[in-house]
Amino acid sequence: MLLALAVAVLVLVPVVVTFSSFAHVEGDILAHLTEFVLPELVANTLWLVVGVAVGVTVLGVSLAWLVAMCDFPGRRLFDWALLLPLALPAYVTAFVAIGLLDFTGPLQTWLREGWGITGLPEIRSRGGVVLVMSLALYPYVYLIAKNAFATQGAIALEAAQSLGLSRTRGFFRVALPMARPWIAAGLMLALMETLADFGTMAIFNYDTFTTAIYKAWYSLFSLPAAAQLASILILFVLVAVVFEQRSRMQMRYSAVGRNAATRRIRLSPGRAALAFLYAAIVLAVAFLIPIVQLALWTREIWATDLDARYWSFTWHSLLLSGLGALLVVAVSLLLAYAGRLRPANAMLWTQRLATLGYAFPGAVLAVGLYIPVAALDNWLIDSGRAWFGFEGTEVLKGTLLVMLAAYLVRFLAVGFGPIDSGLQRITRSVDEAARNLGLGPGGLLARVHLPMLRASLLTAATLTFVDIMKEMPITLMTRPFGWDTLAVRVFEMTSEGEWERAALPSLAIVVAGIIPIILLTWRGSRDAH
Amino acid sequence: MKASSLSRLFAALALSAAALPALAEEVTVYSARNEQLIKPLFDAYTKENGVQVKFITDKEGPLMARLKAEGKNTPADMLLTVDAGNLWQASAEGLLRPIKSKVLDANVPAHLRDPDGEWVGLSVRARTLVYNTNKVKPADLSTYEDLASPKWKGRLCLRTSKKVYNQSLVAMMITEYGEGKTEDIVTGWVKNLATSPFPDDTKAMEAVAAGQCDVTIVNTYYFGRLMDKNPSLPLAIFWPNQTLKNKAAGVHVNVSGAGVTKYAKNPAGAQKLIEWLSSDKAQNLFADVNMEYPANPRVKPDPKVAAWGSFKPNLINVKEAGSLQAQAVKLMDRAGYK
Hints:
Chain A is mainly alpha-helical. In chain A, 78% of the residues lie in helices and 1% in strands. In chain B, helix 6 runs parallel beside helix 13.
């Protein structure tokens, strides 16, 4: 409980720093943004959020249902392959999509020059952004929903059918509502990431709240105005989170059996072919085509760019992601478990606040963290100088400790979502039975909950690992000298518009990110047997 | 995990490198110019002078926020950026210190330096017109301002106004024409756009080459890079504003430059490094690696760059790009330039 509070306080530090910007209001900048920029970007942001919410839910839930509950050719492959887009940063997908589909891309060029066809829908548009973001982010919903469907089992559905519901109605009236906390958890992650996204929006030149935040900071040179806009964004997210939580609290969930593997729905050959086609198209568009493009670009530059340093970039990326994921999962478990033991309002608020870091635009969060760290460092250095004659400029900053703490603040939501929704699915009667048998809170967690939460823990670890691999602003700002990672390499290339040369580190991120995804599936399938 | 990597990890966790006594002289650089453009130079400097150069890269905004937060205890001796606007901002925030250097005065023309000596330009980035050679005759082109005239309706492509290069171009126009007339020009550009603004210069040029539009405004090194990869594209450079007689005369130039931080631990070392970077022998290395123009007028640009022809640059001090940047951004917002 105390630990949970301590974590929440840590996360609150950048929130407080950000909100403290209101001490210094630059009226003219805010007035300008309100008059000429905000109306359009609020509309843009709303369209984006609604569009991506629909997109990731439809893609994620339908694919999860097919893979978890039905039998069709290639199902085992799709089971893990459909997660792969996670390893691909959204801005890479965006760059490839625009490269292929814009006026100058091969498709339109071929149609125009070969057949005189023009007037195709513009990819650099609202629809294009929504499409790319949905393709990049659906795995959050897919992964978490798949676990839900798999663990709730076919039994509930069969029960529904025996009560006279058709299979379709059984899905909508039984399976879907039962999976709701899981779907909502995945959806929240996807939407928070959408709101905080800068890279993809920059490539599409699509103005959202977050791009306005960066405009205030980088172009109008006003970090306070940027922080004030970020505060508004965070408030909106908080409201959404609380709303989602409220609507979920009225329900109690319990798992029914977990032997889905033996009772899959047999699809007719025609439907099985359709299922295969659907999954294959999503996989191709969201992952295979971008990867082939990256590989083609890499082929042009690897001879000059690939050197021995890549071992250290990769090692740094893997190490930071691994340690970060462990830390995030451990703290998420603690936080979720504290909430289960003490489901008080104060605890709920602590959890909500603690997971807000994911909705921050990355660089704003990085600064919000760096300012207090540097202040603490200044105090330590000055005391050290006075007391021990310390000579130096860094104590805490420039250490991995600060980096890991920053990742924790940023990605706690990613770990917390799957674990908390997994914990909610364990009925309270289990806890009571265990207590009656004399287990304390520690024993309950170690001997009852942890084994039941295995899939959720693995999900949380994978999501966090892959997210840290791709993370840029925090890594850039807090890394020690010489601690460059693959994501830093991507930054070095893209900062001067050399997208093709960024293909090599991007591809390395994907390859390194695939490792935990495969591990996850392998462990998951072993557990099922 | 190997034992050596483990121990390295713990060393990194427990200590920081800067807390250890430095063995050789060291200069620490915060750089917004990316690693592949600066590392060859720093390596050469170390080889020549035995001085270690430690650096970290990030965007300008975060680097300046970092310098500010670290205050007196910053490890950074020097700030390196890719545009004058951010150098001006760093100086306005009190992050830099003035340096007096006869070497820099001799090596870098006055309009590429801060009048107060807080920073200096080290390479020149020229922003010019690139047109489709099949569709436009050079005689039809004249100035940036002319691209607002109705004859270019539906024929112009632009990069986004969020990029600092466009912001400084518009800032320079404000110094000559004032806000009202500049806003008219920018509104004219927006009216003439063939398609929504692009995220980078390369995409804009590709659109010109594919015939989606006829002309665009880009930094020359992007042109060089694109033509290197695909020499057959029907694109060419036009140097605008060459015959104008007002302050807006000449091709708009920005600088990649550097300054010594206010709380530098080794200010003399940082100044020496900057002086070396402006010297005849380092200038080619600095500029040629990215096909930019040397700031030092005695140094000839890369032959490939020289082949694009010579031009008259705009001579307003590049610091105006910084002081007028916020005004330019607001103006572009009002004009609907995304």
